[in-house]
Automatic annotation (TrEMBL):
InterPro entries tied to this protein: Spore_III_AC/AD (IPR025664)
Record's keyword terms, sorted: Membrane, Transmembrane, Transmembrane helix
Source taxonomy: Bacteria, Bacillati, Bacillota, Clostridia, Lachnospirales
Entries under Pfam families matching the protein: SpoIIIAC
Name the record gives this protein: Stage III sporulation protein AD
Length: 128
């Protein structure tokens, strides 16, 4: 049900932005930014459930907390990067949006590198 609310809120924001673009184009960017922040703040409420689920998974399977922290960092980088990139694209700055996306991809690779190295060490130990 919440997905429908967020979708309707987003569509209403798009329609308001479209109407405002014709009459007051200087405010349409602010409206887009405001709607994006509002929807993002509503999505942050889902983090409690996410953390509880990850803790439950951790109780079932002995997973190092370093790996869980890395997964959460990667999810955060993805969401923040996509949000920022979308705002830049809406404002007409697609080159900056592309640079944000590239930086986020590199940041995810950097955060995931310790996990990859641990996996390779495990495979190497298994092979010997």
């Amino acid at each position: 049900m919440e997905v429908i609310k967020i979708s309707v809120l987003g569509i209403a924001g798009v329609l308001l932005g479209y109407l405002m673009k014709n009459t007051r184009p200087e405010f349409s960017g602010y409206l887009t930014l405001g709607m994006g922040i509002l929807i993002l703040s509503l999505a942050v409420g889902k983090l409690d459930y996410l953390f509880a689920s990850l803790e439950k998974i951790r109780s079932y399977i002995p997973i190092d907390s370093t790996y869980m922290a890395a997964i959460l960092k990667m999810i955060g980088i993805t969401y923040i990067g996509q949000f920022s990139s979308g705002i830049c694209k809406d404002a007409g700055y697609s080159a900056i949006a592309g640079q944000i996306e590239l930086f986020c991809k590199l940041a995810i690779m950097a955060v995931s590198m310790p996990i990859l190295l641990a996996l390779l060490e495990t495979i190497q130990d298994f092979m010997t």
